[in-house]
Design goal:
This protein is an alpha/beta fold. It has 16 helices and 26 strands. Helix 15 packs antiparallel against helix 16.
Length: about 450
């Protein structure tokens, strides 16, 4: 059958497509901008007919109607691999459960361990060869669809087409139903503008970057500040190998810093697995052979990362303790985000010849419960706090007060170094705590 004939034969309304979902099913929504809109709304309308439908998503960028219409969770149970702001609010209402993972393992979870009865994703229109592109979310999309018993595609012509790489598309012959969406605009999520504190820390990182380095930037104001400073620096011929494609890479490209010429993998192309940012960034992705979309088990594989010399990984964290343990996902028992690919890139960057990983964070925050200034450097992570990156893997810590290299450092050396980049108002108390923990030498000085 010709692709367009097969397309027409599989065309359904959103209501018709979700009618295949039964009580007890596992349904997958994919991730970020691949998550369906019309299909979500249509499934929510079946609340009174269904029981115990379990739904997996990742980093929801818009409200999920299956959650909003079912606050008692009578029909739908929503779970997420990585929390954004919306899912954090759902958790406070006990309407979202977290699924732990190291990001590179996500495709193998689906292929080897998980059940998916119905997968529903949003894609650009089918091309003339019969393929639906995964657009801004490669990640584990192919693995999810291969696992699913039923695959439903919701078409939105606002999504760009991202060239691969690999595993960036699915053929109409592998799709069960097609729903033509209403082509609503896709969400833009520009990075927060860095302030002077972010820039102080960012300058310390940029000083460590050499010509020909390959860069990974995480989410948040400080990594974005690093990218913007790189764009204004004297370094040249940088490469991109990242999980998240953000606006800072476009800025680096426009300033002539990002060329991908000196990479050892994918020479000439910037590798990435998902994208969130501005409309301008999405337009840059569209049909651009300079960029290559890959599944996350490639972009986040430490063995692949390590092949690139002078690899630089830049990520945020929520808290760090005096042992060097890093939490980038929880505040005590409260889930804030997720493990993501931080450990993947910390591991890969350290194994790279000349590579470095930077854990950057502001030294303080204002506690929303008390309004008091609190330190992000703590003696030990709080009860229930999750270790995202273990002390045995951390390389550099950076705050606005300085940067320290923890590789190979003993517990007393770590305590000394970490306290030296904590906010001065908290250092004396941290020293007292380190003494009580028996990780402080009398000869130590700050």
């Amino acid at each position: 059958m010709q692709p367009m004939s097969e397309y027409r034969a599989k065309l359904r309304s959103a209501a018709e497509a979700v009618s295949v979902i039964k009580s007890g099913d596992w349904v997958d929504y994919g991730m970020t901008l691949s998550q369906p809109m019309l299909l979500d709304e249509a499934l929510a309308k079946r609340k009174g007919e269904l029981k115990d439908v379990k739904i997996r998503g990742t980093l929801a960028v818009a409200p999920r109607q299956v959650v909003e219409t079912d606050p008692q969770r009578e029909a739908f149970t929503y779970c997420s691999w990585h929390f954004g702001g919306y899912e954090r609010k759902l958790q406070e209402r006990n309407l979202c459960n977290f699924i732990p993972m190291v990001y590179r393992n996500k495709p193998s979870f689906y292929r080897n361990h998980l059940e998916v009865d119905v997968a529903m994703i949003m894609t650009p229109p089918m091309d003339k060869h019969g393929y639906f592109n995964f657009s801004l979310t490669n990640s584990a999309t192919r693995a999810i669809l291969e696992t699913a018993r039923t695959v439903i595609v919701e078409v939105n012509n606002q999504l760009p087409v991202a060239l691969g790489g690999r595993e960036e598309c699915i053929h109409i012959s592998e799709v069960d139903f097609v729903v033509e969406g209403d082509n609503r605009p896709i969400l833009e999520l520009p990075a927060a503008q860095p302030d002077e504190i972010d820039m102080l820390a960012a300058r310390l990182i940029v000083d460590e970057i050499v010509d020909g380095a390959t860069i990974q930037l995480g989410i948040g104001g400080m990594p974005n500040a690093v990218g913007n400073l790189i764009a204004e620096s004297d370094v040249r011929d940088l490469g991109m190998h990242t999980e998240m494609l953000v606006d800072a890479f476009l800025t680096m490209y426009e300033k002539g810093k990002l060329t991908n010429r000196r990479k050892q993998t994918d020479c000439g192309k910037g590798a990435w697995t998902f994208c969130l940012g501005s409309r301008r960034l999405y337009d840059w992705v569209d049909q651009n052979p300079f960029l290559a979309s890959y599944p996350v088990d490639y972009t986040n594989d430490p063995a692949v990362i390590a092949q690139n010399d002078n690899f630089v990984s830049v990520n945020n964290c929520i808290e760090a303790d005096l042992y060097g343990q890093v939490s980038s996902e929880t505040s005590g028992i409260r889930q804030i985000s997720g493990s993501g690919g931080q450990l993947d890139f910390v591991t890969g960057a350290y194994a790279s010849r000349g590579g470095k990983s930077f854990m950057c964070f502001r030294s303080t925050y204002t506690d929303p419960r008390t309004g008091r200034l609190s330190s992000r450097v703590v003696p030990t992570l709080p009860t229930g706090g999750i270790v995202t990156t273990p002390r045995s893997q951390v390389h550099y810590f950076v705050t606005e007060w300085g940067k320290v290299n923890l590789a190979g450092s003993s517990t007393w050396e770590r305590a000394e170094k970490i306290i030296s980049i904590a906010h001065p108002d908290f250092r004396d108390d941290l020293i007292r705590q380190a003494e009580a923990m028996k990780i402080w030498r009398r000869s130590n000085r700050i």
